[in-house]
Each structure stands twice: as C-alpha cells, then as structure tokens.
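Re: 2-deoxy-2-amino glucitol-6-phosphate structure - here you go.
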Amino acid sequence: MCGIVGYVGKRSVIPVLLEGLRRLEYRGYDSAGIAIINEGRLEVIRALGKLIQLQEILDSYAARPKGIGLGHTRWATHGEPSQANAHPHRDCTGEVVVVHNGIIENYHALRQELEAQGHVFTSQTDTEVIPHLIEEELKHTNDLLRAVGQALKRVEGAYAIGVLWLRDPKTLVAARNQSPLVIGLGEGENFIASDIPAVLPWTNKVLFLDDGEIALLRAEQCQLFRLDDLTPVTKEPKVVNWDASMAEKAGYKHFMLKEIYEQPQAILNTFRGRLDPETAEVDIPEIQLSPEEIKALNKICILACGTSYHAGLVAKYLLERWAQLPVEVDLGSEFRYRDFLLDERSLVIPISQSGETADTLASLRRARQTGAKAIAICNVLGSTLTRETDGTIYTHAGPEIGVASTKAFTSQLTALLLLTLYFGKIRGHLGQDQARRIIRGLVQLPQQLEGLLQTVHPLIQDMAYDYHRKQHFLYLGRNILFPVALEGALKLKEISYIHAEGYAAGEMKHGPIALIDEDMPVVVLAPRNHHVYEKMISNIEEVRSRRGQILAFGTEGDEALEKLANHTVLLPECEWELSPILYTVPLQLLAYEVAVIRGCDVDQPRNLAKSVTVE
Ligand code: AGP
C-alpha cells in the first residue's frame, strides 16, 4: 500500500505535504514525491528511497509556493522502486498530475490502448494510465471533476487518487474505490490523505470517502459526488480524537495488531486479479514456466526461514495433494550446507517477506548452480531475492512493520495456494469441481476473517489473561495444521518470551508427553472436518489424562471438543486447504494479547530484527 496526501488552501504547501507524508511513511517508503503549482508551472519533485531523500532535495528548493499540491510515499506493487516509478505521475501534456494508492488490474490493456493513441509512458507503473486517461477526457470537457469521473469508469481495481490540473489551479479532485481516502476539513483549506494521521496537525474534522465516490476540493469548498453519475452526496463530518502516535497505527495500540486486522485486505489484495471465481481459472503471469516445463517438473524445493519456512511446510501438503509433486522444504540456514539433489527439472521456491534474508539468499544461490528454476514468493518489490529468481509471485500485504510476521504469512499462504491451483490444473491433478470448491472458499475468506476477528478476539483476551504467567506452552497440530502449530509457538515465544514448542500431535507419545502436567498449557488445533480429527481427539485425551491444560481451537458447534478442553475457541468451518490461514489468526491474537499483558515490546521484541540480513 502507499500513502497519498493533498492540500488546497492558503498555506505554504511543501511543509504541509512533507509533514503529511512523514505521518504516512509506515504505509510505504521505497520512494516519494510531490506535485506543486508554482508561478504558473506544474512542478513534480520525486526521490528514490525514504522520505528523507525527498526532504533533502526540497530543502534546497528555493520556491515556497502556497495554495495547492499533492504528495505520495510509495510501496511498490507494479514497477520496481525507482525515481521514474515514483509518484506523482503526469500525462503527455504535463498539465495533469496524479497520486494513487491501490492496484489497477486492467492497466495492461489500458496502456496498450493509450499507447496506440500516441500516449508516451515514462514508468512501469499501473498508476500512469490514470493521468493519460484524464488527458483524453479533457479533450472533451473543461470540467476536471467530470474528466476524472469519466476516466475512472475505464479503470478496474483498487484506487485512492488525488488529481491536479494546471488549467484549473485551485481545484483538487479525489476519488476512491477499495483503497482508503479521508478528507480533512479546515478553515479556508482542505486536505486529502490515505489515513487520518496525515491531516491531524491541521484539523481533526474529517469525512471518509466511500467506494465509488469522488470529491471536488477548493480552499472554501468540499463537494462529494457519486462517481457513476455525479449525483451529490451529503455526509456528516466526524471529529477524530487520536493522538499522533496512535494515529500512525490508525488507532491500533501496536503495528502488529493493526497488521493482524489488515489480513482480510492483504489476502484479498494477494488473490485479486489472479483468479476468476466464475470460471475457476487461476492466472499467475509472474510464473515464467511453460505448461510443458511445469508438467516436466520432478521436484519442488522450498527454501525459507522462520515464519516463511512454516508457510513452506503448509505448501508441501497442498502441492503434494493437488500437483502430485515431491516437495522438500528446508531452512535456508541448513539447505546451504547440504549435499542436496536438484537438477534443471527441479523448481526452487524461496519464500521471504523482506526478500533480504541472508540464509535464504545464500541457499537460493547454491540451488541455482544446479540449473534448477526458481520462483520467489515475496512481499517487497525489487528486493534482492526478486532479482535472483526467474519470477516472483508478490504478496500484496503492504509494509509489515511489526517484527512478528502476521499478514505477510497469511498472504504467503494465499500465494502458495494460488500456485498449487495453477500447477494442479496444468498437471491434470486438480479437477474443475475441486478448483471451484477451493476458490469459492478463498473468495469468502476475507469476509470470514473479518467476522472471526470481531467474535474471537474477546475470547482470546480471556484466554491470554488466564495463561500469561505460564513459563511453557506446547502447540499441537496434525497434517496441514502441524506447521500452524509451529507458527503459533513461534509467535508466542518471539513477542512474549515464553518458551513455546510446536509439535506434530502424533509425536507427543515419542517424548513431549513427559512434559505434561497441570502447569503446561497445550494449544490444540482440531477442525472437525479434517481426516485426522479423531486422532487429534485421542491426543487431547492423552493430555487431559495427565492434567494438562487444554486450549482448543476447533469448529463451531463441536460440543465434544468443548467438553474436553479447559478453554475452547470455535471457528467457522472452512475448506481443508484454507484452514492454515483461518487457524493462524487466533494464534497470532493469543501471542499478541499474552505479550501485551506481560508488558513486552510487541512491535520490536528484544534481540530480534524485522529482516535478518546477516548469516
Ligand atoms: C517471523 O515472525 C519472524 N520475524 C522471522 O522468523 C521471519 O519470518 C524470518 O526472519 C524470515 O524473514 P523473511 O520472511 O523476511 O525472509
């Protein structure tokens, strides 16, 4: 995701834009830029890197124009981080300028159409089609609002945009579809921003644009309209009473909690544009392998560390089931020292949120020496990992600030499920009905998670309070939920500093059962529709008979499980393939709430770093 800001009023505009961008930098920080109208000229100043790079350029910028401007801080989705790909973007005349947060799904087709009309593009971004579409409309009207409205009717996908036009220098037009946009209402001035923090220094009176709405802003004017027919929309302003620190976390106490709650959107953003629920078709253009190469694959080798490794373990169950491929998953720090067996018919899949993890990179480099092909799963466009593979399936989770990985993990699981569907269909092991079943479940998942977060969070808070003083936890799962047990344990230990182990439940009798007593909380994952459910119940009985404390996560209506457990959290039924995503979220919340009660630094736990770029 990116951060956009806009201003129209009487102030010196550069300081306003920079302060607004500084408060949105958590939304993206690979490049930044502003557009201002100075002495009759529309000027765009952009810089690669964090906002400080732009600030340094502007410090030596002599002009101090007043009145109107746009700003943008970028989290690259299409087009690597570069000055040319930094926003704002202009049309051919140089008189229309746009900042955008979101993903334009049909930008390829629009760009081809516009280039055929003679438009010249200067970036690789999806965004750049918007100013050129507006330019076309301004050939038929002098009304900027109308031109923007007409242009956006051609656009499919998510956007929050700000638009300026040199020939109407007192007007700022903004519009929204599926990406957030707030309007700040001042005295003789108005603001737009991706998020509340960016307007708080000047006003706490705000309006929220809804999907399909467009706004016309001038210093003394703020009018909202329906995008489709420009009928006026009336809304009551709201007053925000956040302090600045809370504001950058959008009201959440920690970035980690904010990112847990962003998972429905992150999962939606990751599968959006890559599947068609009607036809059950999956399209992943980033995979540069032909159907013949995919059919000829003899092995998949997944390389990753930490949470990303757990995502790889889940993928093993999926790919073996539906792509009928042998899958090996190894830790980056181990694989690189092994005598592994790969060849040119093997596919290596490195998974990394940051794309900078040294162990994963080192293993990938060794693996590539065998002639194996490589496709990365990564959250950071243009990161080192993405430049060393044959293709990258990006997770569109947006920046993950909390050190403990949450939305990146469930987005990785989403991307790996898409890969499984894609391979399974090409290799002929995934039928249309199965594909429809899984895709139907995936499309419903964001909404299911929204509901789950609301209903389950209070229950988790109670559970956390009862067990936050424990010194040890055991997490048990079977089959595709065994990696989720590992992930739940990692979340708890890395932010609350409680010792926690994830285990395959079937392994209990081979050792860990010696640990069980009334002081040992045992988290068990037992969805009723899994083929190993009865086995899980047996394991729960084993724990219970040794007075272990059972914290059970299961399926709504499972009274038998409730009778066996000390605490039970019941989740909606879901497809086997989606259960790792659904069952991870409450475990993230459990780790978070325990850490908060214990007074730990949730976003920056001791001894840890967000990206481990050393070996
Ligand atoms: C996860 O919560 C941890 N922060 C850590 O295990 C992380 O997953 C690991 O360092 C891998 O990072 P990457 O995904 O950026 O490669």
